[in-house]
Amino acid sequence: MTRKAWGGRFQGEAIEWVDAFNASIHFDQVLIEKDIAGSIAHATMLAAKEIITDDEKQQIIDGLSAILDDYDEGRLEFSVQHEDIHMNVEHALIEKIGDVGGKLHTARSRNDQIATDMHLYVKEKAYEIIESIETLQETILELAEDNIHCIMPGYTHLQRAQPVLFSHHIMAYFWMLKRDKDRFNDALSRIDMSPLGAGAISGTTFDIDREHTQELLGFSDIYQNSMDAVSDRDYIIETLANISLVMVHLSRLSEEIIFWMSEEANFVQLSDQFTTGSSMMPQKKNPDMAELIRGKSARTTGALTSMLMLVKGLPLTYNKDLQEDKEGVFDAVTTVKGSLRIMTGMLDTMTINEDVLEKTVQNDFSNATELADYLVQKGVPFRKAHEVVGELVLKCINEGKYLKDLSITEYKNHHDSIEEDIYTVLSPKTVVDRRKSLGGTGTEAVRKQLQVAKDTIKK
Ligand code: ARG
């Protein structure tokens, strides 16, 4: 029977399946590097403040480094009896260096320890996610530049609305991702904070130096209230919200790709590497990766909701409920990083069916607004122009043609200010390029947009 680190007060034998329920070691072991970094900083500070000797500090640090090597080489054994990563490491340390290992936990609690580990973890992952977002943004920029001449239908209500440049459409996602990145950067000021030294709840009687450990761990700020320090999980909630929003953006883009790739639209082709076949229907090429990203966005939103519910009714300070804060965020981090990577690869290898797009925009009514604007420029009030064009569209639908197919006499029968130049005016290229307004889809405006976009990722 292994004695618990907190065994002194207890007499009853532990029950293994209760220990298993209580334990977090099966998931919090991913924090081992952070946990050891926090412990090394803590021991260094304890020695600097002469709470432990330099020799004890050295033994502790050497022991902890050896434990990390053991872990890296698969030699470290964990046990549910030692509950979590903190006590498993402490147990291994005492086994390795003897009783002096027991001095490490002086002036510290698992409550400030786990908070420190999680701050270090979330900070590292936030930077990694920011980097993955940037890689995807670069891919989108490239795609937009390479296909600047491609015109596609722009939709509202999933009905063709007005033709737009493919580049303009895809760049909308660049800007969503920029806001996502900004949100992660903003959250960093609240993530990058040291709770270490808060103790279990109220600080400690030892003459510790919290700023020393803050500095050693590279935190740019420090919690001013020990009770807040051990019970704050806002930074995890914020991170999950930021991740959820990235996933929602990726899910929207996935949905578009799935539609573009459908036989009905046939606007793009995904590469073989990013699609799958059907076990039964030999003709199939399915956009599984895009569908999975769309599906996985449900998980991250679920993690956010769980985390909000977790803290909703919690009194200060630490409650064991908080052990449940980890799996959701670990999973969300893996999910968002994986999805960003897949989306990057998918877009990087996607080809645009230019001829299909060309045919599509030639054969629809997405130039109808243009005809109305044309009449307005000739002095016709917009309401009247709208009505005239509506009648022309109806006539075309009844006769199975498009606006470009109407003869000039037919036009003149509806409004005599329509001239020969109407055919150029109605061509998708003209329709697009005349939208020169800032942020509009005209080629010139999009080129400017691309330049501004590039400047946002240049550091
Ligand atoms: N495994 C615990 C967690 O993840 C560490 C903190 C435990 N603290 C305590 N007082 N039981 O939340």
Describe the fold and architecture.
The protein has 3 domains: 16-106, Fumarase C, Chain B, domain 1 (Orthogonal Bundle); 111-150 and 164-207 and 220-352, Fumarase C, Chain A, domain 2; 362-450, Orthogonal Bundle (Ribonucleotide Reductase Protein R1, domain 1), CATH 1.10.40.30. Helices cover 61% and strands 5% of the residues. It has helices at 16-22, 25-28, 32-48, 54-72, 85-97, 110-146, 166-191, 210-216, 226-231, 234-261, 288-312, 326-348, 354-362, 368-377, 382-399, 408-414, 422-426, 428-433, 443-457; strands at residues 151-156, 159-165, 193-194, 221-222, 268-269, 351-352. The strands form 3 sheets. It has a two-stranded antiparallel sheet. A two-stranded parallel ribbon has the order 3-4. Strand 3 (193-194), helix 8 (210-216) and strand 4 form a beta-alpha-beta unit. The relative contact order is 0.10. The site of arginine has 10 residues, from helix 6. Its main location: cytoplasm. Belongs to the lyase 1 family. Argininosuccinate lyase subfamily.
